[in-house]
Amino acid sequence: WVAAADPSTGGVFNSLVLSVGAGTYEELFFRVLLMGGVLYGLKFTRLSRAAQWAIAVIGTSFIFSAFHYWPFGMDAFDLW
Fold first, then answer.
1. Closest Cα to residue 40, out of 48, 58, 52?
2. Which residues 6+ apart lie within 8 Å of 63 measured at CB?
3. Are 64 and 30 in contact (CB under 8 A)?
4. Contact 60, 52 (CB under 8 A)
5. For 16-39, how does the pLDDT look when each residue is reduced to its tens digit (9 = 90+)?
């Protein structure tokens, strides 16, 4: 598994492990933990349930997108 952390070693298996691992951890962090945490925090507001979900989905989507430009300032932001 150590070789899977280094893409320079090549191989289909290593690429598959990197692809599945990155996607899995991104979904677990951003969709489960972060969005769940935002929804839990918004539960204590007077917002409607639909507004809470809209804020959670849109807010965590912006955060998810921003992390693909990490470290900030390295890539020019392009809306498209």
1. 52
2. 30, 34
3. yes
4. no
5. 777 777 778 888 888 889 999 999
